[in-house]
Design a protein that fits this description.
The chain has about 280 residues and is α/β, with parallel strands linked by helices. It is built from 12 helices and 9 strands. Helix 4 packs parallel to helix 6 and helix 6 packs parallel to helix 7. The radius of gyration is 17 Å and the shape is globular. The termini are far apart. About 5% of the residues have low confidence.
Length: about 280
């Protein structure tokens, strides 16, 4: 486990708190404001920031994140300049940074070059969404040798044998998705989230983050009953989309993440954030 990710989960465990993992697409709505968004997430207290690499065919993502990838690609975002973005900001951020990507951009760059550049940028973990566990060996070696955690995604239909294998090969934390289908905010947490968490806990002592569909402090609190951290993505990306053409983008992002943490740490006020 990378030093920063390990320390964050140790602190959360000591403090008895649920971690908050926030997802945004790198370069959305453009690279300059993407940098300001990452700073805002950190100020608001995100424990881990997932930075998505925009991809032209994001099959596992719902319409909100698909459109974020389209905006980022239109603004000129690439894997290379997303890595440059992280490297430029790394010294300013307390949060750990996990790069969230599809395999195509990584293997086009080359696994060894990617691992070296990610390590130089200060990336703490990598999650390659469509990389099968069975085919992860060579890429995992390159990433681990560079001192970066390789994080695996586990769904309610993942077999116990594959969960076991992900626990053996993965590091940093395991990412459980609470429902089948594509990403997207929902009103309620999927009923299978707790059962999946139990299956993962049975074979692994790695920290567990659970996401897909989370959008409120109540969701974060509920996930905290079965996992170490909650992941919020589409709801946050939707705020970026709504506020991209206003002067309220960065304050809205910061207010939303502060609101999500309302039940984790004492807050001055309740209620939904005004965006």
């Amino acid at each position: 486990m990378s030093g920063r990710i390990a320390e964050i989960f140790r602190r959360l465990d000591t403090d008895g708190q649920t971690g908050l993992v926030t997802y945004v697409t790198g370069g959305d709505p453009d690279l300059a404001r993407s940098a300001d968004i990452l700073r805002a997430l950190d100020r608001a207290g995100a424990d881990i920031i997932e930075v998505g690499v925009p991809f032209s065919d994001p099959l596992a993502d719902g319409p909100v994140i698909q459109r974020a990838s389209e905006r980022a690609l239109a603004s000129g975002a690439t894997l290379s300049n997303v890595l440059e973005l992280v490297g430029r900001l790394r010294g300013e951020l307390n949060a750990a940074v996990v790069l969230f990507t599809y395999a195509n951009p990584v293997f086009r760059m080359g696994a060894d070059q990617f691992a070296a550049r990610a390590a130089a940028a200060g990336v703490d973990g990598v999650l390659v969404l469509d990389l099968p566990i069975e085919e992860a060996g060579p890429f995992r070696q390159a990433v681990v040798d560079a001192g970066i955690d390789l994080i695996f995604l586990l769904s309610p239909t993942t077999t116990d044998a594959r969960i076991q294998r992900a626990a053996e090969l993965g590091s940093g934390f395991l990412y459980g998705i609470s429902r089948l289908g594509v990403t997207g905010a929902r009103d309620q947490i999927a009923s299978g989230a707790s059962a999946l968490a139990g299956r993962i806990r049975a074979v692994s002592s790695l920290p567990l983050a659970v996401g897909f569909g989370l959008s409120s402090p109540e969701h974060v609190r509920e996930i905290g009953e079965c996992a170490d951290a909650a992941v919020v993505g589409s709801a946050l990306v939707n705020i970026i989309a709504q506020e991209a053409e206003t002067g309220n983008l960065i304050p809205a992002v910061e207010r939303y993440v502060t609101w999500l943490k309302r039940d984790i740490v004492p807050a001055a006020s309740g209620g939904a954030p005004v965006t």
